[in-house]
Design goal:
alpha/beta; binds adenosine-5'-diphosphate; binds magnesium ion; six-stranded mixed β-sheet; 244 residues; four-stranded antiparallel β-sheet
Length: 244
C-alpha cells in the first residue's frame, strides 16, 4: 500500500488523480479554486460522464487530463506514468499519441485543409500513406465532412469545425478520448450521431470521458462524476433520471 510512485502497475487505471487542485490567480488578490482536491481513478475501458453546473471545473479537469494545463498541486498518472515526472517532450508525445481531444476551442490548424487536419495525428503515429488515406476518408465520411476535405477550417461554421475535430479524434484511434461539451455546437441529429460514434469507440475498447450537462449523455453513461465548486460530489454509476 502507501503512496503511489512514479509509475503504477501495468494493470492499473488509465487515469489516476490524487488530490488535484487548480488555482487561477487573478489580477489583484482574486483567485479561483477551479479544482479542489480531486481524487479519481478511471479504469481502462470506462465511459465516464463529468457533469455539474457551469463554472464547476469540468473544462479545467479535462485540460489537466489532456496535459494542456498543469495542476497547482496533486498528482496525475496517465497510463501508469506520473505526468509530473515527464519531460516536456514526453508530455507532448503523450498528448498527441495517447489522447484524442474533442474540445470547444477545436484546436484545428488554420493553415491546413480539413483533410490535412484529420491526417495529422496519423502522420505523427507513422501510419503508411495508404492507411492514412483510408482512415481519413473513413472518418470524414462518418461525420459527413468529406465534401469539405479541401477547405480550411476558418471557412467552416462552428458546427462543421466541431465535426472535423471529431473526425480527427476518431481517426487517431486514441486509447483515451476526452470530450468537452461535444454536442455544444451541433444540431440534434449531428449530436446523436456523435453520441453513437463515441459509444462505438467505447465498445471498441477506448476509455471515454465526456464533460457535459446534457441530460441525454448523463442518462446513458455507465459512470458519472459530478462536480460542484471544483469538488467531486458524486462518483459512481449513472443516476436514475430525475423528473420535476
Ligand atoms: P466548467 O467547464 O464546468 O464551466 P471551468 O473549468 O471552465 O468550468 O471553470 C471553473 C472555474 O475556473 C470558473 O470559476 C472559471 O471562471 C475559472 N477559470 C477557468 N479558466 C480560467 C482561467 N484561465 N483563468 C481564470 N479563471 C478561470
Ligand atoms: Mg466548460
Amino acid at each position: 500500500g502507501g503512496e503511489a510512485g512514479d509509475s503504477l502497475p501495468a494493470d492499473g487505471p488509465v487515469i489516476r488523480l490524487q488530490g488535484i487542485t487548480k488555482v487561477f490567480k487573478g489580477d489583484a488578490d482574486e483567485s479561483t479554486l477551479a479544482l479542489d482536491n480531486v481524487t479519481v481513478d478511471v479504469a481502462r475501458g470506462d465511459y465516464v460522464c463529468i457533469s455539474g453546473p457551469s463554472g464547476c471545473g469540468k473544462s479545467t479537469l479535462l485540460s489537466v487530463l489532456a496535459l494542456l494545463d498543469t495542476p497547482t498541486s496533486g498528482r496525475y498518472w496517465l497510463n501508469g506514468r506520473a505526468v509530473d515526472r515527464m519531460t516536456p517532450a514526453e508530455r507532448a508525445r503523450a498528448r498527441s499519441l495517447d489522447v484524442g481531444l474533442i474540445f470547444q476551442s477545436f484546436n484545428l490548424i488554420g493553415d491546413m485543409t480539413v483533410y490535412e487536419n484529420v491526417e495529422y495525428p496519423l502522420t505523427l503515429r507513422g501510419a503508411s500513406p495508404a492507411d492514412r488515406r483510408r482512415t481519413v476518408e473513413g472518418a470524414l465520411e462518418r461525420v459527413g465532412m468529406m465534401a469539405r476535405a479541401k477547405q480550411r477550417p476558418g471557412s467552416l461554421s462552428g458546427g462543421h469545425q466541431q465535426l472535423v475535430a471529431v473526425a480527427r479524434a476518431i481517426a487517431g484511434r486514441p486509447a483515451l478520448l476526452l470530450a468537452d461539451e461535444p454536442t455544444g455546437n451541433l444540431d440534434s441529429k449531428s449530436g446523436e450521431a456523435l453520441m453513437q460514434m463515441l459509444s462505438e469507440l467505447h465498445a471498441g475498447g477506448a476509455t471515454v470521458c465526456i464533460a457535459t450537462h446534457d441530460p441525454r449523455w448523463i442518462a446513458q453513461a455507465p459512470k458519472h462524476l459530478r462536480l460542484f465548486d471544483g469538488r467531486v460530489v458524486a462518483d459512481g454509476a449513472a443516476p436514475q433520471p430525475v423528473s420535476g
